[in-house]
Amino acid sequence: MPPEISGFAFPNDVHVWWSLMIVMYPYITGFVAGAFIVTSLFHLFGRTEFKPIARLAMATSFSFLLVASMPLQLHLGHPERGPLVMITPHFTSAMAGFGILYSGYLLILLLEVWFVWRPEIVLRARRSRGPKRAFYAALALGTYDIGPEALEVDHGAITLLAGIGLPAACMLHGYVGFIFGAIKANPWWSTPLMPVIFLCSAAVSGIALLMVLYQVVSKLRGGEPDQPCVSALARWLWFFLILTITLELLEIIVMAYERSESWLIISELLTTRLEFSYVTMQLIVGGLIPLILLAVVVLMNRYLHERVRNTLSTVAALLCLVQVFSMRWNIVVGGQLLSKSLRGLRAPYEPELFGREGVLMAIALLVAPFVILWIFDRVLGIDPPEKTGAASPAEPPADVPARVRSA
Amino acid sequence: MEKPPRSLPVVPDEHASAPPEPGHGRREFLANVLRLSGGALVFLAGGPAAEAGGASGKEAGEAYHWDEHSYAYLVDTSKCIGCGSCVRACAAENQVPDGFFRTWVERYVVGMERTHVDSPNGGKDGFGPIQVDFVGTKSFFVPKLCNHCRATPCIQVCPVGASYRTHDGVVLVDAERCIGCAYCVQACPYGSRFLSPLTHTAEKCTWCYHRITKGLRPACVEVCPTGTRQFGDLKRPNDPVRLAIEHDRIGVLQAHLRTEPNCYYLHLDKEVR
After folding, report:
1. Chain A partners of B183 at a C-beta cutoff of 8 Å?
2. What is the pLDDT of residue B3?
3. Is A33 contained in some domain?
4. CATH code at position A366
């Protein structure tokens, strides 16, 4: 049964080829890039207020990266041929860049994670016995030196890797925006603003996720989140949300002001098919409301009680997560409701519940990184055991001999 | 370079080529009449088609050299009657799944203020009468298909190189290589591609490549009763399609996108995208 069409759509244009999985793909890579931006603010830009979450941010980025390619794989008509994108890439394709960018960034992040957690790996290798010891020894890659000089070298390596990792993370996500922005056939996608909007909203989603995670992790550990860190997160979240919403509105306003050929149908798309997901969710619930909440947190910071600050920031962050998801949905799905005939719109797309590209799979994909994060914490310990929430990556844990700690 | 033959070759048919044996009795006589009438049918169907044929080709069985051809397609929108034969022929020839279209026909009813466009089932069943709630001042049909663009975004975006352009100017998909990512479907401005629900790979019009490389014409051109659809070889100096492109006022769809289509339209209206 073909979907209902208003106006005229090209007969092949009535299908939503890029399903919920392609909404999940930029959503997940957005967390990768956004969380990495937070750890870079600490490692590269000296924002010491992010020290308590620098490791959590890096582990989050890593966990989401491991899942990032899965929605793509799940959506392919021939998943078994997916590796061809990496093995025999066709370089004029924006999509072929994925293999290089993804594996490059994965390599950088793996190295950085290894350097940051190396002291823990070595200590656990020394403390444990049997297969556990062999496991940590394998992770240590045969290097057990965690003396001051070695840690100094590690620190240099971490800074260097963060320096390469930040542009790599930005490229990885800017490139996701490019995949859409460079499709001249689709006027709702085709704008040079697209990679920039994706990048800014990635920062929003990454910071928002860390805000929520930090609150939850602190509660789970029975402590309170570090308030300067929460304030800093709120401030940066506010900044990136302002940037994102401004750019998203600019895109529409320019189109409307130019009265371009496509504006007629796009305005109809936004006010009919996407009225809920765009106007209500992306602009008002996910945009305007957190903008106000964060403004309160940032501008009235010193008058706020801890609990109020935590609550306002967390609610704002959750709404920002909704905003970014709506934005991904509106771009990916919205662009396919619009026929390239520019004369018609298809009925709203409703994803299936079960199946390879269904809602349950999407939920599983969102849960998976948190499971990985939990395993990460079991295996390496996200934060050093002695002082939860106040660790520097190169800082050795408490049970290291004093000689080492003095480094 | 060897000059290709002027007319379309007729694929030898066993009924046509077998000379009737001298018959004995009524049974043999009837059998011979049937054979002869079969041959005559093949002659009647194939002969005029060969005369009017735009495409050139080698005699069947001879090696095909793709460098010797450069195909182009011409649609004269003023001739189309919206019978839908082309859509049906295409579906039958290429086993196109229901609800998907390698070619389709659009109907335009245009007034001074408004335009109505439709294509019920891609025009496959023809077009029924229509009432519009404005004063239509002109009405016409426009057949659509893959434009086999020279600067095509679909090939550009294919991440594994499964979409490619042959030397004779046809854009094809290697179904054994296609990963089914649908990026090409998104990138085609004309809506010519789809993911087949059967093969899960991208599919599109091939200009009946299996036919044209044997010197035949695409199925849609073959069945078009009005000559709306014409297929030609730009490497033949006197090819009617080539002559039309050279001398007539022609248009291409969505020219502003610079995809350089190899599918040309005569009498294209501004309402057509």
Report:
1. 93, 95, 179
2. 45
3. yes
4. 1.20.1630.10
Distance CA B60, CA B176 (A): 27
CB contact under 8 A, A10 and B144: yes
Instruction: Determine, for residues B178 and A15 on separate chains, whether the beta-carbon distance falls below 8 Å.
Output: no
Q: Supply the pLDDT for residue A100.
A: 85
CA distance linking residue B202 with residue B253, whole number of Å = 22
Q: Which of A113-127, A385-399, B139-153 has the highest mean pLDDT?
A: B139-153
Residue A306 Cα to chain centre, angstroms: 27
Q: How far apart are CA A208 and CA A18, in angstroms?
A: 26
Write down the ipTM of this complex.
Answer: 0.89
Write down all domains in chain B, each with its CATH number in brackets.
Answer: 14-52 (no CATH), 55-273 (3.30.70.20)
Beta strands in chain B (DSSP E): 71-76, 103-111, 115-118, 136-145, 163-165, 171-173, 194-195, 202-203, 229-233, 250-251, 263-266
**Which residues of chain A have a CB within 8 Å of the CB of B153?**
183-185
Distance of alpha carbon A312 from alpha carbon B258, whole angstroms:
51
Residue B61 pLDDT more than 60? no
Judged by a CB distance cut-off of 8 A, whether residue B183 touches chain A is yes
Whether A6 is in a domain gets the answer no
Q: Is A70 a member of any domain? A: yes
CB-CB neighbors (< 8 A) of B155 in chain A = 92
Asked if residue A205 is part of any domain, the answer here is yes
Residue range(s) defining the domain that contains residue A199: 15-405
Number of independent structural domains in chain A: 1
